[in-house]
Amino acid sequence: MVFTVKDMTFKAGQELTISGKPKSDCTLFSINIGHDPDNIALHFNPRFNYHGDSKVIVFNSNQGGWGEEVKEHSFPFDQGESFKVVFSFNNEQFYIKLPNGTMTSFPNRFGDDAFKHFDVQGDVKVLSIKIK
User: Fold this and answer.
1) Is the pLDDT confidence value at 105 over 60?
2) For residue 1, what pLDDT band results from cuts at 50, 70 and 90?
3) What is the 3-state secondary structure (H, E, C) of the chain?
4) What value does the mean pLDDT take over residues 19-45?
5) How many Cβ atoms are within 10 Å of 103's Cβ, its own excluded?
6) Cβ proximity of 42 and 24 under 8 Å
7) 83-89 β-sheet, strand order
8) Among candidate residues 87, 86, 83, the one with its CA nearest the CA of residue 122
9) What tens digit of pLDDT does each residue of 57-87 get?
10) How far is CA 57 from CA 7, 11, 60, 72, 82, in A?
11) Highest taxon of the source (predicted)?
12) How confident is the model at residue 5 (pLDDT cuts 50, 70, 90)?
């Protein structure tokens, strides 16, 4: 499943909240924030069990090719259970509040202060999206 929002304005200082529910057999899903499908500033990829990664969140960016992966081993996601993730950013960092309240971050490798595209991919149902 792919859920895409185009021509949205998500600016530095705002919060993007995504609520969803992975399917009971979900192996992974991703939330991508960027300019378009080929220029992704934040690739947020919880992996339940995928290519040797088990219960890990993989972060990356794609700007003319994928960068170096960063892995987070705090994994507050459960198959078949609803979650809420909150994203915010400035021109240096993305800040991600995980479902258990843990905060993590990933460098804003683009250095931009506004993005207009995001998508959600994988075996997950999007329940709500809010920008404030």
Assistant:
1) yes
2) low
3) CEEEECCCCEECCCCEEEEEEECCCCCEEEEEEEEECCEEEEEEEEEEEECCEEEEEEEEEEECCECCCEEECCCCCCCCCCEEEEEEECCCEEEEECCCCCEEEEECCCCCCEECEEEEEECEEEEEEEEC
4) 96
5) 10
6) no
7) 103-107, 93-97, 83-89, 16-22, 124-131
8) 83
9) 999 999 999 999 999 999 999 999 999 999 9
10) 27, 24, 10, 5, 17
11) Eukaryota
12) confident
36 — pLDDT class (breaks 50, 70, 90): very high
Amino acid at 76: P
Q: What is the largest CA-CA distance in the chain?
A: 37
Cα 61 versus chain centre, distance: 11
- Rg of the chain over CA atoms, in angstroms? 13
